[in-house]
Design a protein that fits this description.
It is a single chain. 2% of the residues lie in helices and 49% in strands. It is built from one helix and 29 strands. The longest helix is centred in the first third of the chain and has 6 residues. The two termini are 37 Å apart.
Length: 345
């Protein structure tokens, strides 16, 4: 798949009738508290992409000149703004200690490189060999980074970068196109690969390098339809979504034993829902499109109960991460542009 300009470093944000049982599982998020995040100097939008155990957040914003700047927002609300090696930069993932992984771009935004920023502020860039575009999927508490790079033939491949600087590239067996999304504390990676017919297959690559590829029963064939594994927690539970044969999308959770369960979000239109993040307890967050065409967020508790939410005066609310306290991070759009948010249960 050919990469475009990075807006969020995850799988692309894309989407039948819901029965009474599903409706009974839903409840409005009346008790949730929202915090709007606007980075200092942001004139053209702030996107918050990831949150760690202490509720530190990383993301990026565009300044008055339209340049991209990475940030870390501490739990007390203070911001640290930075760029990697003077380039335009985006913070994408943050671990428990506050180490940030992200990407920086050349001036014309045509090439990207990965970087890691230590909690003390030291920044080091990295590039897999023969890469032209580098995306970051996640960073774990061991400071291992997982992500995707594209080669000169525009084929995506996965990579792992460990703390000592050793970088390993990989592809799912028999595949030319492999994308790595997030990883867990053990170093297991969730991602997606594409066969010769451009059908998407989910996979888990364990820390020892073994692959387990999987497909939802109703996944479509060809045209990038199929199964997308997006996130994996410490227990090996995977969250993601399926692009179905009917061209709708359904969120799923797959347990460590390989049992995949799709679920509908009450209030979603026929376009369906996507899951983007899962915490240690199995709480999942993601988004769906309602019948009016608005994008809203949801949180699915480990017991299957679903709460939906949207930021005030917004037709687009996009959750992207959830920590073990159930605090959701993401961004929303209103008349003034993009803003980050935190949602505390």
């Amino acid at each position: 798949m050919r990469p475009g300009k990075l807006q969020i470093s995850l799988a692309a944000l894309e989407y039948p009738a819901i029965g009474l049982a599903a409706a009974l599982l839903a409840s409005p998020a009346v008790a949730a508290q929202f915090t709007v995040l606007d980075a200092p100097g942001a004139e053209k939008g702030t996107l918050a992409l990831a949150i760690n155990a202490s509720s530190a957040v990383t993301g990026w914003f565009r300044d008055a000149k339209g340049n991209y700047n990475a940030f870390v927002r501490a739990p007390d609300g203070t911001y640290t703004i930075f760029t990697a090696e003077g380039e335009q930069s985006e913070g994408v993932a943050i671990n428990r200690d506050g180490a940030v992984a992200g990407v920086d771009f050349t001036g014309n935004l045509s090439f990207s490189h990965g970087f890691v920023r230590t909690p003390s502020g030291q920044i080091k860039s990295f590039d897999p060999e023969n890469s032209t575009v580098v995306f970051v999927g996640g960073i774990n508490d061991e400071r291992t980074i997982a992500g995707t790079y594209w080669d000169s033939d525009i084929h995506p491949h996965g990579y792992l970068l460990v703390r000592d600087g050793t970088l390993t590239t990989f592809d799912a067996p028999g595949r030319q196109n492999t994308e790595a999304n997030r990883l867990n504390a053990k170093g297991d990676v969730a991602g997606v690969d594409f066969d010769s017919g451009n059908t998407a297959h989910g996979y888990v690559r364990s820390a020892d390098g073994n692959f387990a590829e999987f497909d939802a029963d109703d996944g479509g064939r060809g045209g990038s339809l199929g199964t997308y594994a997006v996130a994996i927690n410490a227990r090996g539970v995977v969250a993601g979504y399926v692009k179905t044969t009917s061209l709708s999308q359904r969120a799923f959770v797959r347990d460590a034993g390989g049992v995949l369960t799709e679920f509908d979000v009450p209030g979603a239109s026929g376009l369906g829902a996507q899951a983007f993040a899962i915490n240690r307890h199995g709480a999942i967050t993601g988004s769906f499109i309602d019948p009016q065409g608005h994008t809203e967020g949801f949180v699915r508790a480990p017991n299957g109960k679903i709460e939906t939410f949207a930021l005030p005066n917004s037709k687009f609310t996009q959750p992207l991460g959830i920590n073990d306290d159930g605090i959701v991070v993401g961004y929303f759009k209103d008349k003034t542009g993009n803003h980050g948010f935190l949602r505390a249960p």
